[in-house]
Design brief:
alpha+beta; seven-stranded mixed sheet; single chain; disordered C terminus; globular; Aminopeptidase
């Protein structure tokens, strides 16, 4: 049984370890990058675990940008350990992030390697469309990225008065 909960500072070393395995050719994020992402008040990061309190086997992060009433969201990362792929766990992580955007009535943007066919299929199945190409986006490999967008879904929630984002 897998669960999705909040990514914690105590998880960042494991995330950096997974990054080194999964993104070795494209500047994997170090632990410091994950800490900075967790510290940003406009980000929401999720951990995928095999059991409550267990080791991270996947993670995802979304940023909430813009003024109230005109929010936009950007997916920063989504990853599942190679040993756990093929079980729709990426779908589950994406669903958590899209729920945040839908709660805010916000469109969602992302970049994905043009050769990452499983990720592209996942995004397109969830309403994303290709909107452009960023040449040489991934470094140091120089791989291109598609920019993709999913139009706003859901009804915007009123967020204010010091409330946390969903």
């Amino acid at each position: 049984m897998t669960i999705i909960d909040a990514l914690l500072r105590s998880d960042v070393e494991r995330c950096a370890e997974l990054e080194r395995v999964m993104f070795a050719g494209d500047s994997p994020w170090p632990a410091a990058a994950f800490r900075a992402e967790l510290d940003a008040p406009y980000n929401r990061y999720f951990a995928l675990r095999e059991a409550p309190g267990g080791e991270v086997i996947g993670y995802a992060g979304i940023s909430i940008l813009g003024p109230e009433g005109a929010y936009e969201c950007e997916i920063h990362t989504i990853a599942v350990a190679p040993s756990h792929r093929g079980h729709q766990l990426g779908w589950a992580l994406l669903a958590e992030m899209l729920a945040v955007a839908d709660h805010l009535g916000a469109p969602v943007f992302l970049e994905v390697r043009v050769d990452n066919e499983p990720a592209i299929a996942l995004y397109e199945a969830n309403g994303f469309v290709r909107s452009g190409v960023r040449k040489g986006y991934y470094q140091p490999s120089g791989a291109d990225a598609y920019t993709m967008i999913r139009e706003a879904a859901g009804v915007p929630a009123v967020v204010g008065g010091g409330e946390e984002f969903p």
